[in-house]
Amino acid sequence: MKNLLLMSLFLLLCSSAALAQKTFEFKNSSKSYNVRLTAENCDENVCSGEATFSIFRKGRKKPFQTLTTNTEFRVEGAKRLDPKILHNYEHLVFFEDYNFDGINDLAIRDGNHNFDEGPSYQIYLFSPKTKKFIHSRALTNLNQTKYIGAMQVDEKKKVLRVFSRRYEKWESTEEFRVVNGNRLKKIYQRTEDYTDKNRIKYTTKRLVKGKWQTKIRYKKRR
Fold this sequence. Notes:
It is a single chain. The chain is 12% helix and 51% strand. With 222 residues, it is mainly beta. The chain has helices at 2-18, 75-78, 137-141; strands spanning 20-26, 33-42, 46-57, 65-74, 93-96, 105-111, 120-127, 132-135, 152-154, 159-166, 170-179, 183-193, 199-208, 211-220. The longest helix has 17 residues, at 2-18. The strands form three sheets. The protein has a six-stranded antiparallel β-sheet with strand order 9-10-11-12-13-14, with no helix packed on it. The protein has a four-stranded antiparallel β-sheet with strand order 1-2-3-4. Strands 5-6-7-8 form a four-stranded antiparallel β-sheet.
């Protein structure tokens, strides 16, 4: 019994030693801010569990805001300087203008809760009143569960674009406008339906003056 307890203690210590706290610096994600990420449980390849994102104004030594979330990410992804790839964002911190008010907002990686266990993000909108990043539940939901990868920001059209699919059955693109700074209004959806073996069905829906207009066309398969 004594030997068994000693062995259990040894395995526990080895397991604890295999995981360690790691810190990552992000100095190229924004012209205005630096971010320091401290992840509690990391091995050589993966970090998981609680993580703290400390946000610094450029040139300052003390953070003006600290955000905490559970997360999971590959260490390799945390080292990429410019990792934006459509449908497969692997970076941990993004500064983009999500509500199109002319001020960059913030996205931080919270794990792999996206479609097909892809990367997912918590969205924080910058408040000129409080000078802090405030969590947005509505925009965060666009980066969770049913959609693929992080949302696209179309600055020209001032829309947020997301993608979803069911393998070999259909693919969908949706666009949302941000209303009153923090609410979302869906204005467009295009779906490609592959369930028919002979042809592909394209359905396009647009919100025009408060009413949805739908167009359907078909294309023969080769």
